[in-house]
Automatic annotation (TrEMBL):
This is Transcriptional regulator, ArsR family. SUPFAM superfamilies: Winged helix' DNA-binding domain. It comes from Pedobacter nyackensis. Transmembrane segments: none annotated. Gene3D superfamilies: Winged helix-like DNA-binding domain superfamily/Winged helix DNA-binding domain (1.10.10.10).
């Protein structure tokens, strides 16, 4: 069975979030991405594979290097979810506040 990956899996891991942040400043090769992380190249490659499968980054071959580029539009799904969740919770808190005010009187 093939596992379907989504944007939420991409951002669930702090290392992947840092990779996305690094790539948000421009394309980088895999070696540059791996700098500043205290983990193996294989671990970085696994994170990059997941980000690529989620559509958060694209990969291209430039000479002998693989270059990764952020596809930040994919994060709109997260933004939309957060916006809708915030609306829902604000409504619930407003109802709770109204209820508490009514019961206090």
């Amino acid at each position: 069975m093939i596992e379907r990956r989504d944007v939420f899996q991409a951002i669930a891991d702090p290392t992947r979030r840092m990779i996305i942040l690094k790539l948000s400043h421009g394309p980088l090769n895999i070696t540059k991405i791996g700098e500043d992380f205290g983990i193996s190249k294989q671990a970085i490659a696994k994170h990059i594979k997941i980000l690529n499968e989620c559509g958060i980054i694209s990969m291209s071959q430039k000479g002998r290097e693989q270059v990764c580029e952020a596809q930040l539009g994919q994060l709109d799904e997260v933004t939309d979810w957060v916006t809708e969740s915030r609306k829902l919770w604000n409504q619930r808190f407003e109802k709770l506040d109204k209820f508490l005010k009514e019961t206090k009187q």
